[in-house]
């Protein structure tokens, strides 16, 4: 890169989105930085990030299946209330056909994730909450890495003035991420293709 005068993209200083609620009891850390899974719907992770739009912000919450790296749920809003996280969870449950009992969902200790509304949503679907420590990005490294990729590939050098346009571009990028972006951790398959092959292989094994 130095020989050819190529410079990597550097992320700007981030805006703080994790505001811990010190009065709420956190969930235990069920992952302990083990971001691997050999089956779908056993481990999910998620986080919230900010998206600059003109002089204001949108906030994006995600749910990622750790096995396939697929973004199975997301929510975009102009606030950081608990519904930002619960809406993302509800989408993930719907995408998975409602059968997610026992999955561990790992997040940070932000107020949205320790809220009663979020805990009730997880309990209703049989989702086990898992949380890392306050101020440790490594405890939720996969979710952090996803947002870093999004900001490098989609947000670098641009700033939207329309929330409608920002929402559309975010939707397009996540569709690209799931269906076209290849991952070395998946044998250079896309998340959707990786899931398809895994499901096909499991079906054939059961049939045999």
Automatic annotation (TrEMBL):
One Pfam family cited in the UniProt record for this chain: rve
Transmembrane segments: none
Xref: InterPro entries: Integrase_cat-core (IPR001584), RNaseH-like_sf (IPR012337), RNaseH_sf (IPR036397), Transpos_IS3 (IPR048020), Transposase_IS3/IS150/IS904 (IPR050900)
Domain Integrase catalytic: 24-199
PANTHER family: TRANSPOSASE INSF FOR INSERTION SEQUENCE IS3B-RELATED, TRANSPOSASE INSO FOR INSERTION SEQUENCE ELEMENT IS911B-RELATED
Record-given protein name: Integrase catalytic domain-containing protein
Organism: Streptomyces gelaticus
The organism's taxonomic lineage, starting at the top: Bacteria, Bacillati, Actinomycetota, Actinomycetes, Kitasatosporales
């Amino acid at each position: 890169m130095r020989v050819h005068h190529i410079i990597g993209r550097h992320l700007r200083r981030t805006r703080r989105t994790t505001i811990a609620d010190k009065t709420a009891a956190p969930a235990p850390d069920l992952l302990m930085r083990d971001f691997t899974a050999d089956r779908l719907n056993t481990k999910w992770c998620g986080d919230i990030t900010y998206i600059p739009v003109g002089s204001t912000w949108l906030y994006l919450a995600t749910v990622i299946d750790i096995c396939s790296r697929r973004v199975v749920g997301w929510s975009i809003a102009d606030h950081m209330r608990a519904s930002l996280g619960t809406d993302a969870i509800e989408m993930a449950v719907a995408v998975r056909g409602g059968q997610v009992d026992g999955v561990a969902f790992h997040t940070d200790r932000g107020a949205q994730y320790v809220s009663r509304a979020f805990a009730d949503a997880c309990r209703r679907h049989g989702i086990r909450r898992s949380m890392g420590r306050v101020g440790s990005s490594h405890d939720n490294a996969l979710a952090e890495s996803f947002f870093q990729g999004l900001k490098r590939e989609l947000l670098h050098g641009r700033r939207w003035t329309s929330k409608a346009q920002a929402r559309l571009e975010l939707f397009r990028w996540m569709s690209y991420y799931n269906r076209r972006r290849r991952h070395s951790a998946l044998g250079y398959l896309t998340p959707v293709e990786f899931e398809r092959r895994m499901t096909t292989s499991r079906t054939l094994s059961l049939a045999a």
